[in-house]
Amino acid sequence: MKESYLRSDFDFADYLSKSIVKTYCETFGLSWGSFAFIIAAVIIWRFIVLLGNMYELIAFVIVPLFYIVVVAVTIHRLIWIYFELVPYIESPADISFPRSSEYQRDAYYNINRLPRPQYLEGFIYSSVPEFDNSVTVCCRKWHPFELSWSYMFGGRLPNRHEVLFWFDSAGKGFIQSIL
Q1: Burial status of residue 154 (CB atoms within 10 A of its CB: 0-12, 13-18, 19 or more)
Q2: What pTM, to 2 d.p., does this model score?
């Protein structure tokens, strides 16, 4: 595009600054929480530098170890969630896989042969007041799921899939932010 096609009041420097900021935001994908974490980390590091070299060495050892432990616990949780979601099959012979001529077979053909995942078994507490399924916290009776993230911030009880994650409905985003 030639300069003659641009408006006379077009500010090319402003355009470039907005374009580069948009590109950086899309590239790094940092949320406001990430920005706040980075700023807090810089402020904490400045205080550590002011305290002295010994504290810097301690921070260089403790911070990576802490991060390794957090990532290991998170990976362990993700593996646990995977094994809760995917049913365990003792032997592939227990399931009838389609042969080349049976690909048009019903998708639910093996539904009775697959074991149900463990998290789908059991009783989910009802929110009906007739059942005494409350938990006492701070001298007040609560429904067990009223203490969940979904109920406190979303106004609804979490479903069985969400209960597998830490912070139930916000759990996927929480784990992504950790990793």
Answers
A1: middle
A2: 0.55
